[in-house]
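Hi! If you just cloned this repository, the fastest way to understand the data is to look at a raw example. We've pasted two of them here, unedited. The first protein comes first, obviously.
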Amino acid sequence: MPALTRAQLLQLHRTLGIPADYVARRHMPWQREARRLVPIGPAADDGQTIRLTPRAAAAWTRLRVAAARAEVNLLPLSGFRSVTRQAAIIRRKLAAGEPIGRILQLVAAPGCSEHHTGRALDLGSPENLRLDAAFARTREFRWLCRHAAAFGFYLSYPRHNLHGIAYEPWHWCWK
């Protein structure tokens, strides 16, 4: 499927009830969907194949190996996510009665998610396979804070980030 144009993304935002000023007000950059992806293995929580761009996958492998040497078990939970999938997540939450303002504190709008790039990973640990702030209390998170940058990964949504996204200690993106 070809990438959506900016106009198509803005129309999608309108159909989902995303405010017209979302991108500017939240300082959310538009993200391109990755075209070339490689599998990195199954998600630890549901077994779905996780895919990243080749360079991000290579960096992930180096990071994971270094963590394992330190007896830290980083478990991938998700990687690439298409604009279509991002929109489906928001539609599901809307159908469950969640207001769009609350949803956008937890999920980036379609076209703005780092997951579209194939460079973002949601990570867990053996003690925490959920996407929640409890991951910040794991030794895996502490190890990432000390070592992830050496492999090109950064925490995208720290506390009080300018994007208005809730604290996501599990969400790491490769440069």
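Ok, and the second one:
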Amino acid sequence: MKKSGVMICGHGSRHTDAVREFEELVRALSEQFPDLHVRHGFLEFAEPDIPMGLNELRTENIDTILAIPAMLFAAGHVKKDIPEILDAFIKDHHGVTIQLSRELGPDPKLVHAAKARIEESLELATADIPWAETALLVVGRGTKDDAVNNLVKDISQTLGRALRAGHARVCYAGSAAPSLEEGLNEAAGLGVRRVIVFPYLLNTGALVQKIYTATDQAARNHTSIEFLKAPYLGNHPDVIDTFAARIRELL
């Protein structure tokens, strides 16, 4: 009888908090799928790496593996890096079947989680400022793939409409324009009283710290504007549900 397992394929980080958050996600998915062996591995910067996680499943006599890329968009890691690792493992382990799910994508559940995170930032507000006088700045990772960057732009517009923000803008923490600094300066020049900066990222790490540090500097440069730092997506229940949906699609 064939036994199925799940491999959550993460990017990896040198930041221990990012690794801890990812492990918490994996535990939450294990609880949702008690009949499956749910394991994880990282592309880089942390252990176990993906081959180590796959080998762990093999030691548990798993022969059908459902691989879920923990990536928001189908950039290079989803299109090239993860498939190459999985293909190499299949060649070395005859009888193993691996199915790779699609990326998390601009899923409605993720948009709902993003909206909730942005609204959480208002708990730190020091003034009663209407949304009409607020600019929302969504910060993506940034990639050389214009299609992916445009998806982040679309998400910022969707969130802006949902929140009825006066303005919705997008910028990127790296590898794409406008840059983080350019985005912050543009938002500050819109004539608004508040700017909410939201990192459209799954976990904490160097990029989130970079975004929050730049936001603090912008607040010092524009003292008449209230800058709020919204939490990143993290392990919001809707994020976990999106991962679970990818597993169910393969099942």
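That's it. A detail worth noticing about the second one: The mean pLDDT is 96.
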